[in-house]
Amino acid sequence: MSEQLFIMPGAGKNEMYETLLPQLSSLVSGETDLIANLANISAALHNTFGWWWVGFYWIKNNELVLGPFQGPIACARIKFGKGVCGTVWKAEKSLLVPDVNAFPGHIACSSSSVSEIVVPVFDKENKVVGVLDVDSERFDVLDETDVYYLEKVGRIITTIL
Questions:
Q1: Residue 128 in 3-state DSSP?
Q2: pTM higher than 0.90, yes or no?
């Protein structure tokens, strides 16, 4: 696949995801390097939806370590069970946080971020190996539709691990 995405201008959120998902699958199918694939997925999501921050944290030495991302600088390491990302790792399920200031123990990597979705990424043995983190600087942008489709993005990643 070429390194160009096609998303129909003016499409609704569902249509955008339905157009993007097969393109992501195609984009990563011919590449064996995980970092390259995560970087392209981050860029594709960031460019398609215009979110404040999109990226990955990968489990290394029993902590989440910053991986490929798009957006402002971020926390480099997150402990198990800490913040939204660490909580998702521990719970092994996605989490939508409409207002991060109301989330107990939220780690403020950027004071501009006000809402967040974190989705676990599983390996082929169904073990969490990382998380996909999306932050918005606006309220009421991220919702359950995003959770649904970002989990599908996570499953695309599982296929290339």
A1: strand
A2: yes
